[in-house]
Amino acid sequence: MVQSQLRQRGIRDERVLAAMERVPRHEFVRADKQHEAYEDQPVAIEACQTLSQPYIVAAMLEVIAVRATDTVLEIGTGSGYQTALLAELAQKVYTIERHAALSTSAEERLLSLGYTSVTFVVGDGSLGLPQHAPYDAIVVSAAAPRVPESLVAQLAEGGRLIVPVGHADSQQLELVRKIDGKASATTLDGCRFVPLIGREGFPE
Hints:
Layout (H helix, E strand, L loop, with lengths): L1 H5 L7 H9 L20 E2 L5 E2 L2 H11 L6 E5 L5 H9 L2 E6 L2 H13 L5 E5 L12 E6 L8 H5 L1 E13 L2 E10 L2 E10 L13
Parallel strand pairs: 3-4, 3-6, 4-5, 6-7
Antiparallel strand pairs: 1-2, 7-8, 8-9
């Protein structure tokens, strides 16, 4: 997966590549889907959610350039795969998921794999977690109709936010940097994510 889907398609961040070699992706999918774990496509998980395609996960992580000293917020825990990758890359990870069952199973899974630097929260991810802000990086794993202002407000100076923005069925990745207290946005590749449900996302 790392060689054919990531390196050959232009992923160059060696820390991201090494993390994706270490984290066992098959541990984050249902037993009946494990044969799809390393394929170049999303994989369905519980609660009508998905585990994103390996390349898009790597591309998002490369763009936000997570440092070993960073505190990171993840919006949309899902099965916990990207959470584990962030735990490999950052000092501290907060992750929020609106489905309690997903959050619980992801926490159990990560603890069983030895990840102890993650705090799991159930709630409206579109509003972030202001009580633990500011964050050096925020990764949103669901599509928003616009960049959530609450998340921008929770970025540290120099912080990076990556979020899919657009319609429910088609989006583009937006990279937002906070520079001198102001948000500077760059539009990146097209993508397709499940919708971010919440006050600053899509209605349920």
